[in-house]
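Our consortium's second objective concerns turning raw sequence data into structural hypotheses that experimental partners can test. To show how far this objective has progressed, the report includes one record in full. It was chosen at random from the queue rather than selected for favorable results. The single chain below, 92 residues long, was entered without modification.
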Amino acid sequence: MKGRCEGNTERCVVLGKFIVENNATVRSAARQFGISKSTVHQDITVKLEKTDKILFDEVKAVLDRNKQERHIRGGEATKRKYRELSQKKFGT
């Protein structure tokens, strides 16, 4: 999946479709494709807009929704963390 998005628009489009189809975050897309979060973000916010405006708008909607829900996911992760710690500590 390596390569520049300007000459080869395939990565931008593939990332965009993945995010829309899976309601994915930038972090999960980066993990899936083995590239950095910065690269994913650059591809989908700058390069995809120039390549496929319709897909860009769909991706932007998913990312905006993820951003709004971020605090909920963070709270759930913290809750799980402390639940696991207390189970280890008290053996329940």
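The partners drew two points from this record. Residues 10-90 form one domain. Residues 2 and 35 are 8 Å apart (CA to CA). Both points have been shared with the crystallography group to help prioritize constructs.
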